[in-house]
Amino acid sequence: MEVTLYSTQQCMQCEATKKAFDRHGIAYELIDLNQNPHAKAQVAALGYRQLPVVIAGPDHWSGFRPDMIRRLVA
To answer: 8, 10, 17, 63 — which has fewest CB within 10 A?
Structure first.
């Protein structure tokens, strides 16, 4: 399953999500919204206003969500 993490620098919840992915061995593509304006539009189109935004297959969520991260490992 492909996992994409939309984040920005100096985002505490983004850093926590990256660390959790790394700790659980979850491979992910990191997209920095400060460097990719097109990605900002994609996130906005999904209706999210809080970072990080994670897209994992058919599922997606925003914020640091340990419960959803654990589902990716199971």
So the answer is: 10
Tens of pLDDT, residues 10-56: 999 999 999 999 999 999 999 999 999 899 999 999 999 999 999 99
Q: Is the dihedral of CA 24, 25, 27, 28 positive or negative?
A: positive
Give the predicted TM-score (pTM) of the model: 0.92
Q: Are 23 and 14 in contact (CB under 8 A)?
A: no
- Taking residue 16's Cβ as centre, other Cβ atoms within 10 Å add up to 16
Alpha helix ranges (H) inside 1-74: 12-24, 37-45, 66-73
